């Protein structure tokens, strides 16, 4: 079974705020089931495992060792291919680039959809692919720091690949305000004109709802010993579930619309792994929209030594085994969620055990200055934190209870 962080990291919309808080190569020849003795060993990095039945199927499934050319050929025949990731893992993005290149070699008529962009920035994606924008202009016009916020260096190789090959890029996401309103008041509370064209989601599979309920309860205040868990009909969970399904549905609809277009290309979706696992999330919504056979491909981070981890049998159509100990991307994080696009942004949330929490930053603080410079918006905070060298101190002046307070954030040294 995957660990909770691996399974559940996707479950809140990632923006600049929450981001701060929160190889096709294989030499295996011939498909063969994992033998009993092999199940006692770690899957080898660089190998592909494939399911014998589709994720989400009611039939039993098993993982098989498969050569990359067979898997790529199979994926290229589908309408929609979905590539997962952990957003801050650089190796996951390198793997995505390899898969994209291999699929493009077989089926060059391609479009790539990205979870990272809301639909309103589609013109910036079109201009980027057309070669009209510099990197800096593209990131600014796509509102990167506010709507996503992870280090753009993780994703730029994917964007350049699309640009070099003139592959259309599709903005899959919706405004976070839509998901938040559904989470606060339910789907029916959102006027149709404000739904960005998204239709009501298909009901969640029972296993998906159970997983989301576990996540929901993890975010509730700790219960007193012996206290009962929230009832199954808890309105808060119902809205939480509706919000997640809305998010999945929005991305599925954008993918399906392109896949059903005249002379439809191969449509590849790039998104967090949690939206794809076990055939739930986006694949489930795609099937409801008439895309019968979406093909999911996920990287799986192997653990070495006696704590070897193995992918669950029904995790995805195809699983690529990543090397153990792959380092996430460089780039510092505070562990805060920010509100406010212009002027001194307010800290909405401070993640427990984060650098911000250890430094004394609090929810409600308004960031006035950082490294001596006036903060004009959340982008300034994101840029300053991202560029802070390891092992240094970053002075941040916040307004709290009407007073300016200086907080010294000590960034840990670079790991040896």
Describe the structure.
This protein is of the alpha/beta class and 416 residues long. It has helices spanning 4-8, 16-21, 68-76, 90-106, 122-129, 135-141, 144-147, 156-164, 176-185, 206-218, 235-259, 281-288, 355-359, 378-387; strands at residues 32-33, 48-51, 63-66, 80-83, 110-118, 169-173, 266-270, 295-301, 318-322, 336-339, 346-350, 366-370, 373-374, 393-400, 403-410. The chain has two domains: 4-177 and 239-322, Rossmann fold (3-Layer(aba) Sandwich); 347-410, PDZ domain (Pdz3 Domain, Roll). It has 14 helices and 15 strands. The strands form three sheets. Strands 1-3-2-9-8-4-7-5-6 form a nine-stranded mixed beta sheet, with helices on both faces. Strands 13-12-14-15 form a four-stranded antiparallel beta sheet. Helix 3 packs across helix 4 (90-106) and helix 9 packs antiparallel against helix 11 (235-259).
Provide the descriptors you would attach to this structure in a database record.
Rossmann fold, 416 residues, Pdz3 Domain, alpha/beta, 2 domains, disordered N terminus, 4-stranded antiparallel β-sheet, globular, 9-stranded mixed β-sheet, single chain
Report the count of strand segments.
15
- How are the strands of the biggest sheet laid out side by side? 1-3-2-9-8-4-7-5-6
Q: What name does the CATH topology of the largest domain carry?
A: Rossmann fold
Strand percentage lies at 15-25%
The figure for the number of domains is 2
> What is the CATH architecture descriptor of the largest domain?
3-Layer(aba) Sandwich
Mean pLDDT equals 83
What string gives the helices and strands in order? Answer: HHEEEHEHEHHHHEHHHEHEEEEHEEHEE
